[in-house]
Amino acid sequence: MRFSRTLTSTLTLGATAGLMALGLGAASAHVEATPTETAAGSYSLVTFSVSHGCNGSPTTSLKITLPGELNSVTPTVNPNWTISEATEKFSTPRTLADGSKITERTSSVTYTAKSPLDAHQRDTFTLSLQVPDAVGKTLYFPALQSCEKGATDWKDVPAAGASEDSVANPAPSLTVTAATAASGHGSHGSTDGSPAVEASAGSADENDGGAWPAWLGFGAGLAGLVLGGLAFWRTSRKPGTK
Questions:
Q1: pLDDT tens-digit map of 212-241
Q2: In what order do the strands lie in the sheet with 123-130?
Q3: How many CA atoms lie within 13 A of 201 on its CB side?
Q4: Where is the signal peptide (predicted)?
Q5: What is the pTM of this model?
Q6: What are 72-122's pLDDT values in tens digits?
Q7: Pairing of the two strands 101-117 and 143-147
């Protein structure tokens, strides 16, 4: 019957659109930084999420380069990865807020997989740090994702006023906001910029946007069902339709 063929074709188109949306979402997902706090002077847990490999190749390591405004971070242990840190020396000592001086800082943190992360699985890596007093400034954390075959260097910085979608491989980032009474600015921590004790902040990667491709695919499939229903209704109302 004609309405049956119409319904079948419409549903097929809807399902195809949903699958395409899921595929595009997976391909465009990038390494993101999700902070628990962004206020100047506050302590924050910044979680970096890796949601796919390099063109289907498993991930073997993630090197996170720290912006120059940070002196140090405290990496959170991930049982499936080993951690190493690199440092760089200052040409002249840097003076901290408490008056003490330091001669070097942590420049990068690298997580290396004990077993390669499947290209279709995700994992997260969290750094504890103190947000610098630089209200309005966007801090970039270039991340080099190495895989068994190839690598992706998430280091691109968009032009002023442009979104991260304007570059091919956007660097993870966070923008410093003004301190508030609830942000913890001025709370006591160690002089190197890492808190001595932290309260539990929950899962920082729950809102990293990794679920939107699934919702997009669901929406496309639902649209196909609606269109199919309309086609069935319109066809069944035509005189002489059997």
A1: 444 445 555 555 555 555 555 565 555 554
A2: 32-35, 43-50, 123-130, 74-75
A3: 18
A4: 1-26
A5: 0.69
A6: 999 999 999 999 999 999 999 999 989 999 999 999 999 999 999 999 999
A7: unpaired
